[in-house]
């Protein structure tokens, strides 16, 4: 039997990284940066007011208070967006709005609440010291600073930073194009009336959702009956020119395991047993004239789901030019559970209050328990059981956070 690491390495070796692409800011959300983002401007871009109030020379309001106010001439208004360059006369003030550029000579702002709100002359009741209520040019970011590193995923806050840094376009990791094909005569679409022996095809919507939630692009999907000729024809020329094809079902030892039958005959796909649970039967190789990489996942729903996390995610990351390994975290088990020796067990667990417990039944057909899970606990092959208090390694689930 192959180890998980051996199989993962064989899969990653099937693909070459796709070149990064440039996208407009509006299309960057959720994408992974392929290059550092460098600010083209200082942030703030100019000294400006943090409050609606009066721009002053601090020396002119020294000692001002409610009991002993200072009265100054108001020389005019500066609103946010005023592009003129104002100079503040000594002994005078200007009304200034939040975000408006500070006039030359001013070094503090008295908020309007600390005044009588005067328009021609104003009574100020705060001894604003130099720098008070100001936002200084470059105090947040300097032009030329690397504001975001390659490898970081663009979230709304980072998108705002890229925009503010006046960078209209960024280089991002390519989104691999993926096709999903479910196989099996027993499968029907959700919403169908089920005959005895039929089940709803849940792997296809699950894998489509995983592909999209993992940031890849779905370029084709469908279902194939256990018909070797039809399957061979489809796999010889998968529509949509995907970078990766995923199938589910038909890879174990059954008489109607058509994926295995067809692809074994092609001589380009290798089927292996991997020392893991669930997800033991696996296959991978290339199909068609374009030699498109293919990963054949087992049909049992939880096996397919776990295999996606353990094997397909690293392939998608490698295609995107990112390090294949996903980051893991750790947590303490709040209860014990047994694990099969000789295989890595990916226990579906719930992380709550900083501790983990199995999410329920661990059968590879049990979607009820899968749906409650937040992580996969990775229990290595040498471990026969997890005890309460043990530290376990956790693989996050795609789409969980
Ligand atoms: N004699 C052996 N039998 C089995 C072995 C074995 O080593 N020797 N391995 C078992 C393990 S482990 C797994 S995992 C499964 C893998 O089976 P296949 O990949 O061939 O998948 P199927 O036989 O087509 O289906 C298995 C199971 O999953 C259901 N299924 C399939 N596709 C879907 C779908 N799209 N949506 C929902 N459910 C699906 C299917 O109805 C079956 O119940 O093989 C074991 N057997
Ligand atoms: O490996 Mo199968 O995936 O145990 O059900």
UniProtKB/TrEMBL annotation:
Pathway: Cofactor biosynthesis; molybdopterin biosynthesis. GO terms for cellular component: cytosol. GO terms for biological process: Mo-molybdopterin cofactor biosynthetic process. Its cofactor is Mg(2+). Gene3D superfamilies: MoaB/Mog-like domain (3.40.980.10), MoeA, C-terminal, domain IV (2.40.340.10), Molybdopterin biosynthesis moea protein, domain 2 (3.90.105.10), Molybdopterin biosynthesis moea protein, domain 3 (2.170.190.11). PANTHER family: GEPHYRIN, MOLYBDOPTERIN BIOSYNTHESIS PROTEIN. It catalyses: adenylyl-molybdopterin + molybdate = Mo-molybdopterin + AMP + H(+). This is Molybdopterin molybdenumtransferase. Catalyzes the insertion of molybdate into adenylated molybdopterin with the concomitant release of AMP. Belongs to the MoeA family. One of its GO terms (molecular function) is molybdopterin molybdotransferase activity. It holds the Pfam family MoeA_N. Residues 179-318 form the MoaB/Mog domain. Its EC number is 2.10.1.1. Keywords: Magnesium, Metal-binding, Molybdenum, Molybdenum cofactor biosynthesis, Transferase.
């Amino acid at each position: 039997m192959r180890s998980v690491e051996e199989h993962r390495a064989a899969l990653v070796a099937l693909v070459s990284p796709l070149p990064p692409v440039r996208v407009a800011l509006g299309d960057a959300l959720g994408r992974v940066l392929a290059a550092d983002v460098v600010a083209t401007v200082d942030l703030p871009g100019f000294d400006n007011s943090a409050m609606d109030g009066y721009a002053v020379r601090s020396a002119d309001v020294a000692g001002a208070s409610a009991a002993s106010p200072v009265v100054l001439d108001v020389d005019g208004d500066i609103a946010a967006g005023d592009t003129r360059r104002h100079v503040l006369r000594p002994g005078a003030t200007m009304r200034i709005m939040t975000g408006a550029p500070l006039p030359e000579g001013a070094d503090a702002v008295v908020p309007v609440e600390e005044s009588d709100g005067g328009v021609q002359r104003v009574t100020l009741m705060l001894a604003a010291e130099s720098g008070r209520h100001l936002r200084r040019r470059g105090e947040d970011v300097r032009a030329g600073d690397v504001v975001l590193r390659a490898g970081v995923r663009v979230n709304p806050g980072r998108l705002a930073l890229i925009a503010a840094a006046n960078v209209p376009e960024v280089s991002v990791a390519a989104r691999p194009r993926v096709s999903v094909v479910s196989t099996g005569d027993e499968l029907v679409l959700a919403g169908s009336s089920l005959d005895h022996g039929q089940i709803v095809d849940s792997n296809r919507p699950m894998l489509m959702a995983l592909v999209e939630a993992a940031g890849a692009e779905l370029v084709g999907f469908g279902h194939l009956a256990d018909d070797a000729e039809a399957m061979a024809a489809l796999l010889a020329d998968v529509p949509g020119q995907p970078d990766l094809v995923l199938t589910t079902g038909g890879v174990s030892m059954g008489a109607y395991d058509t994926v295995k039958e067809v692809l074994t005959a092609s001589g380009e796909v290798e089927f292996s047993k991997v020392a893991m649970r669930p997800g033991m039967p696996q296959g991978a190789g290339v199909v068609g004239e374009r030699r498109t990489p293919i990963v054949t996942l087992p049909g049992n729903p939880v096996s397919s789901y776990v295999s996606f996390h353990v094997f397909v995610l690293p392939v998608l990351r490698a295609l995107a030019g990112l390090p294949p390994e996903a980051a893991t975290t750790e947590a303490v088990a709040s209860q014990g559970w047994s694990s099969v020796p000789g295989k890595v067990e990916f226990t579906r667990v719930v992380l709550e209050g900083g501790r983990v417990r199995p999410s329920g039944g661990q059968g590879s057909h049990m979607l009820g328990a899968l749906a409650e899970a937040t992580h996969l606990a990775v229990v290595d092959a040498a471990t026969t059981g997890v005890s309460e208090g043990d530290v376990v390694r956790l693989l996050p689930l795609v789409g969980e956070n």
